[in-house]
Structures are given as C-alpha cells and as structure tokens.
Amino acid sequence: MKRNYPSPSTFTRTQSAALFETAKTYFPGGVHSPVRAFKSVQGPPVFFEQGQGCHMLDVDGQTYVDFCCSWGPLILGHCHPAVLEKVQETVAKGMSFGTPTPHDNRIGELLLKNHRYIEMVRFVSSGTEAVMSALRLARGVTGRSKVLKFEGCYHGHVDSLLVQAGSGLVTFGISSSAGIPESFANETIVVPLNDPAALAEAMQTWGADIACIIVEPIPANNGLLLQDRSFLELLRKTADEYGALLIFDEVISGFRVGFEGAAGLYDIQPDIITFGKIIGGGMPVGAYAGSKKIMENVAPVGPVYQAGTLSANPVAMAAGYATLLELLKPGFYEALESKTAWLCDTLQAHCDANGYEASFPHVGSIFWPTFTRKAQHRSDEIDGAKMSIFKTMHLACLERGVYFGPSGYEVGFVSAAHTREDLEFAATQICAALDLAFRG
Known about the structure:
four-stranded mixed β-sheet, 13 helices
C-alpha cells in the first residue's frame, strides 16, 4: 500500500462525507454500529477501503497509522500474509456448510492445549452472542436468575446487561436503551468497580438469587480501568462463597494481554470465559469456554440450549487457527508489550515536559490516552468534561495520519504490524495533536 499521509493543509473528507450522506438514506444514522457515526468527535466518519499491516487507506486516498485495529481483534494487523493465505484457501473450498468441519477440531485442539483455564469451548458468531450464551449457561447451571455486573463494564448489547446504575450505590439496573423491559433490567444488579463494600452489600441482599458475577477483568470499554488483582481475587472468593459462577468477559483482553488473557495474567480461574474476534483472526466470531463439567450443560449434551447457523464457520475457524499459531510464537507478546510501553512512555515524556495533565495507562498491547494524572479504577472517576480535549486531539490526529477510535472512552491497540518506524511517526503526530489540544 502506498503511504500518503495527510497533513493539516491537505486533509480532506470529501468522498467520505458524500458516502456518509448517501448512507444516511439507507441505514439508521448512516451506520451499523452507533460509535461509527463520529458523534463524539468532529466531522463525518472516515470511510476506509483498504488495510495493510498497521495502515488503512481511506476513500480520499489518505493513509493512516491504525490504533483502532477493528476495535482490537487485528492483533496481527490488516491482511497478515499467513491469515490471508489460509482464508483464501478455505474460501475456495466453501464458505459455509452448516455442518462440522475439520477446522473445528484443529482450532479446538490448539486452544485447549495452550490455555490452562478452559477445558471445553463453544464457538458462536460475536462477543455479544458469547456473553448472552454464557449468562444462559450460568443460569442453567445454578438454577438462579439474577446477574451481578459492574458499572463501567460493557458486555455487548445483551438485553439484561445493557443497563446503567440507578440512584443508589448498589442497585437494580435501569435500562440504558429503549426496547428493554424493566423486568429484564431488574434481573441485573449493578455495583461499582473496585468497591468491596458494595459487592458485599449486594451479595448479602441478593446472593441466594445471583447466578453469576460477570466482569471485564481488564475493563476496556469505558476507558482502561485497571483493577487490582486483589479485587479480582475477591470476586472469585465471593462467587464461591455464594455458589455463583464467575464469568470473565475477555472479548477484549482475551489473547490481547497474553495467550491466556487476563485469567493467565492474574492467575485466577473463572468458571466461564467469553472471547471475541481475535479468536477468529478478526472475522465475525466469538466463543465461550469453561470446565468440562460446566460446558457439558450445553445442548446437545445438556439442557441449556444454544445454536447458530454460522457458528464455527470454516472461514473464521481457518483465520483463527492461522492467527493463534502466530500468537504462540516465542516472544510474540513480549515484543508487543515492549512496543506499546515505548509508545506510551514517549507520549508521557512529552506531556510531562510540557506540563500537560495527561497519562497513558496500558497493559499488554492495550493503551488509553486520558487527561488526568490520577489512576482511574471506576467509571465515576472519569471526568467527562475532559473529553473535549480528546475531541480536539482526535481531529488533529486524523489530519496528521493517525487513526483512533472516535470516542475518548475507547482504548487504543498496538498490533504486531506496527514497526518502530510507524510508532515513531505516530508518536510525533500525536504529540503535535496534544500540543494543539492543550494549547489551542
């Protein structure tokens, strides 16, 4: 791909803007996922038509260093040769059969041989579907109906989890979307992150009815709200004490912070883990996994029904197998973490030298530009007013050839395809964007 980085004087969204206006006549808001509409940042969304390595090419012919990486799954970057070859080879033989294929067994064996925290896995078609299925499984295993989740953790657009906290510290969920009956939301108890007292209060009140505690062990959908290991250990202990299951939603952290994800990073055994599109090389896929004892409650072996026409489709399984082989190569995660740390340290040094109130928390290859120097562990510690700084920074980055997800609450990702040269270029442009955001 020819690199044609924009500059503030050449940047344009002429073709993107025209496409967006047309799209709004076809699709609600012109998009198929709300954040893509650029409502939190400036201008129309950028339409992209090609990706290669860590770069994306937009319809106006401009190149960007990509830190969105399809919201995380593209850990190898765009169009990795090994993944591309496997996908093309598989597509030529058939894209979908609705039957078992040998691809299922190959990726299943690879996963289970290299992930100590799971014994059986079921593939689905998205992270949301994985979470939905995991909740049903937890309810089926325990015979209970309520779910305890944490404010600031996102688990897809599952009805009972698309909730926010009410007026109290520990409360029933209140629907954050139209179309969700109050009775559904009332099956969810919402507790602040990093608050052992609130957790204890909730469990003392509803513990006998709670089927599971679900958490992003590395909360990365509402900022990067890193938790102390002790709090995650408390969740494990509390779930055991009350006979509930512990679900780690690793749709983002799974295979991102290590092959065994957050479970391996913190060495904590959850009962069920949910995974997202990394497991399929960025293809539309998800999975949920756990012990053999728990997973054999799923049909056709057990009474918990779950099905999917495109579950474990051969193209996604082939892409996933090729991706996971790359992730298992010696030194893969160490190199990725080192690159991410270098980028964050470079940006932090620039902010420190200029007295900017900014920091860049990171774990593995996940990082978050945030406009405070204070550690943030809960969603109510995020100052929404500071998102105006990100709004300015985001546009300035676009104008200089660096692409972040269009929200200050979203995290960034470094891929294996980001070279030191790419990161040095990006760091220079981000620093210039920070100058503009803080100095005006």
